Amino acid sequence: MKPVDAPQRALSFGDHPPLSLPLRFFLSAPLFAALAAGLLAWHGAPALLTRWSPQTLAVTHLLVLGCLSMTMIGALLQLLPVVAGIQVPRAARVGAVVHACLCAGTLVLACAFWQDSPALFRVAMALLLGGLLLFVGACTVAMWQYHLPGSGAVVAGIRLALAALVLTMTLGGMLASAFAWPGLIQLPLQRLTDLHAMWGMLGWAGLLVIAIAFQVAPMFMLTAPYPRHLTGAYATWMFLLLGAVSLSGGWSGRGALLHTTCAFLLAAGYALFGATTLHLLARRKRPRADPTTLYWCTAMASLLAAIGLWAWPSAASGATPLAVGVLLVAGFALSAVCGMLYKIVPFLTWYHLQQLRETSGRKPPSISQIIPERHAQWQFGAHAAGLLLLLAACYQPALARPAAALMCAACLALWLNLGRAVRLYRQSRNAPNQHLSVPHYHE
């Protein structure tokens, strides 16, 4: 396969979307994560006894749909025109509809799991599938456009992540239909659930994190560019391995050996990305670790730990799948999302304040002043402590409530930190001739 272009470092702001488009997604995400943690704290240990309980499923979907997918969709609507020069048609209107459907659909789906209500499952299916299909359709139309030179690796990864999202949606729709119309059709629910989780976490979330890392890590974290063997056909091979693992599941004889081989190759591929990212972060140009770097180190360490726990489980216990899920969802995906938010939101706020400078005549605050680093560091500390406690709770369910309470506090602190950037922007936009009061923080 011909390798694609190495990711570019420069961004194109020729026709960027309005700030309100990504911010509505970015500000909603921490609230859904806090709600998921709050429900876990309320329900306590029973929610961690098995991954099949309705409470666990409700909490999981609040996190993966309401927080992770919410952030990733907002990031894509912002990054496609800026990184690749690709314009999503009617981006502002599409974003508003997708955001409304995702918010309402996620809440209804959580209630459907909690109440075991077929009617609510039908409503959730209509909202979520409708909103996500609109988003995928708009991105598909956009992907036919010419992309900027140097963005080939990022665009290729995004295309594969969107394909994985379509498969995740299809599998999720099949599962939801079994709950929406019970007894109408018999489906292998456990196998479909495993495939749904695999394509959602390793395909949609995993491939998108990889694609964005190709741009974000060198630009915002000042690492060296990713090596050619990762920015070439790597994402394509990972997607093909996901397909091979999916199709070979349940085979016997040599088919079982093929399935095991593909699964270990897939795990090795993600371990390669995690280890390479940690290597680049350890040798980045800025020696002091800022909150984004700490979050990404946590994300990569969690990814490697999840792979190790899956490959070499300590005991045949129901706690192991839960622990792997915690490491992938809260450790890998959520940590990577939080790290990106601490770079993307201040940068976008600073950039749009620069645009207002023509009318206000005032110099905007620096990026480090928009969200003070010490606030982000305290929030990261709460997140890291909550993650460790949540992982321990998989083996000692009595720790579920304190772990969830700490994670809830960390998510609310993230929302407050992001809200500070929004307040600064609104203050400057609504009162352009007044002094913008930004406290000075020593970094």
Automatic annotation (TrEMBL):
Keywords: Membrane, Transmembrane, Transmembrane helix
Ranges in coiled-coil conformation: none
Transmembrane domains' residue ranges: 21-42, 62-84, 96-115, 121-144, 156-181, 201-222, 234-251, 257-281, 293-312, 318-342, 380-398, 404-422
Protein name as catalogued: Permease
